Amino acid sequence: MTSHKLALILCLLIVFSGYGQEKDFTSNLYSTYGKYKEPSLDKRRIKHNEIQPLINKLSANPKFKVTVVGKSIEGRNLSLISIGTGATDVFLWSQMHGDEPTATQAIFDIFNFLTSGDFKTEKENILKNLKLHFLPMLNPDGAEVYQRRNTLGIDINRDALALQSPEGRTLKRVRDSLDADFGFNLHDQSTYYNAERTDKPATISYLAPAFNYEKDINEVRANAMKVIVYMNKIIQKYAPGQVGRYNDDFEPRAFGDNIQKWGTSAILIESGGYKSDPEKQEIRKLNYVSILSAIYSIANGNYKNIPISDYDKIPENDRKLFDLKLNNLTYNLLGKNYTLDVGIHQLEIDGTSNKTYYNSSRVVDQGDLSTYYGYETLEGKGFSMVGGKVYPKILASTKEVSQLKPLDLLRSGFTYVRVENIPKGENYVTFPINIIGKDYKVPEFKMRVGVIPNFILQEKGKPRYAVINGFLIDLKSGEGNFKNALILR
Ligand SMILES: [Zn+2]
Predict the structure, then answer these.
(1) Looking at the domain assignment, is residue 134 inside a domain?
(2) Separation of 182 CA from ligand 1 center, angstroms?
(3) How far is ligand 1, taken at its centre, from the CA of residue 266, in Å?
């Protein structure tokens, strides 16, 4: 063997063992996740007063440097949490949209990982090569009322030029003072996004934003693309096919686009939907695993060898998902039968403190929906949609209704029960039949975009399925992913 060949083999061995180590690190992160998951942040509607005590704990830890770098309009602290001694700065910020908390939760999981005594070698490697800077929950006022915009009513992600919001100004100031090499811009997206032309939800979507209208690729943007290709491979392992790529049209007012322009390799991560994961805790785990793996790859420089041509191979994001899709139902209108597909969104309505929610569903499309997909789909050929009936007796309370066996009422074609006394402020019940007030007039059954989906699916003239507040219930087995029916006054 020539020394040339030997050198080549040695080189390959080093590259592959590095790759092997990274792979092991990633799968270990995945399998041990439960140990680091921050238990106090287990629901999406988290508030600033829940993360502040966790930040205070980090202040007391000499490994971290915690600085209040700004305040929201309502005066909540914006904290920058830094760790590491390396020459490469990595800046991560989350929740500039108040109702997009998944990555904020993952950041606190990452803090638990960093403060633990485990993964010593990998952590040493990360912290001697990098300085990590986290700014979790950039829009705490929005989070307080679980809304996208800040208290000024603006979208902070369109404030990168005007800089009218203290939150946006803080982000700009911190970016400039760090002049970070990498920036992770962490968001949530609608759960109705899918990977183009597939029924797979876009559980994670990526973008290396353009810095000009020409969508040029310089080294700064190319590095962001390489890290995205790396993270995509990881997500594919745990959620195959469930990754989307955002359209890279230049948006001159957005932070991601400008941060790329200002010289920080900007990586947008959007957490979308995942079947049967309404609180997005599996997605939070995927954030934790993929972000930490990306950080490790940046620390050891391995991402540099990734070809950017793989970036364009990630399928584009599309928005073609329904929570429930009913195919080929028979609908009778003015004595004639028509075939309709029906698409339903199970929308969330916040409780008064914005800490809880219930669902109030709507028909969002009907007709030929053959290019759309559902988290849940029913092949409805041979089923006729008919309106539900009102139970003939008026009951005293919702409690009495629950004692009636609502499933049996549905089997007899009833979808509403009238109740004498409905407690103030109550909007839903957790059993599968709608409650109506004394004077409520049930609208004539008409399938239309915008209506609340309440109807019976008959097979040969007999109730076979019920759709109550947009949730499908199998009347034979009694099964379904039912969450709540509505109280209508
Ligand atoms: Zn967002």
Answers:
(1) yes
(2) 19
(3) 14
